[in-house]
Fold this sequence. Notes:
Helix content of chain A is 59%, strand content 6%.
Amino acid sequence: xxxxxxxxxxxxxxxxxxxxxxxxxxxxxxxxxxxxxxxxxxxxxxxxxxxxxxxxxxxxxxxxxxxxxxxxxxxxxxxxxxxxxxxxxxxxxxxxxxxxxxxxxxxxxxxxxxxxxxxxxxxx
Amino acid sequence: xxxxxxxxxxxxxxxxxxxxxxxxxxxxxxxxxxxxxxxxxxxxxxxxxxxxxxxxxxxxxxxxxxxxxxxxxxxxxxxxxxxxxxxxxxxxxxxxxxxxxxxxxxxxxxxxxxxxxxxxxxxxxxxxxxxxxxxxxxxxxxxxxxxxxxxxxxxxxxxxxxxxxxxxxxxxxxxxxxxxxxxxxxxxxxxxxxxxxxxxxxxxxxxxxxxxxxxxxxxxxxxxxxxxxxxxxxxxxxxxxxxxxxxxxxxxxxxxxxxxxxxxxxxxxxxxxxxxxxxxxxxxxxxxx
Lengths: 124, 289
């Protein structure tokens, strides 16, 4: 099941928040290939947002190839793009980690310091 | 294929000191349209034309299946509305008002009417006269929904309502739209209501239509630029809305996204933001504060 929670304080537009969370769900396998997404009108109602906003989110996801639509039926998760999405995510994480390492070095933390910090934090 | 519920073409309506000019738009079944603009922009005039309460000189208003609103009375049954003042009898009870006025509508559903009164916590034996402003709005909504309109017209409906009921009110409208595929036109100064539920937005200013577009397209179309006052000369004044200054800092709105596309350097020179209906209304309204 896809769980979408909107934030009023996010820097992202509402349709972008929906896109991001559906991508998350696909990566985490909460939404499996060929599984249907909630209907545009049902999701709009649940989130108390306009139909046009939900539609925009689904259409952008379709453009990126992450979901496909069946006329008169709705939208479904695509098969092929899931792996690509994960790779992209790993790439972003790598850049973030490089930045983190740079900051740790600036703060004069050793690799061992970082490792022990990671050990503690990871299991929290 | 989406089906149209309303199409307005070249509509103009003249008064001595006011003119609603050349209004053009179409609305599909199952969508919510927000009407915005300052006081006196022509919102109520436009709504009254659609409701058939006002005659208009030029243009046409086509309801479902292309029926001209003006000549045909049958279309009116499909219109529901909340306007001030409502057509109700102050000295009669809510139930009596429903019975008497509901009789004009072929799809009147008195069971639904009674259940809505209950849901809105309105006492059916109360006189219409004795209702508070918020209760009148609830009653009008119950009445309007009970004749199963295909198009619901709401003129400033949430004005007298507390925030909790406002939210419920919008959610109720949304679920009714989903269940019955009715369409809604709603005018309001409380633009956050529209940020939530509106699919299409029309902005009127001094009787003319500034734009009509889907809400996401609208938010993309009018980016707010801000930056150092020194950089203001980089912008073509005619292509920007009102300019707001605060110390050495200014912000303004581009009147079209094309202008931004033609000048990719704006993105580095200024801070570019996608904003809200309220901001768009502020920057694009003509004239004095």
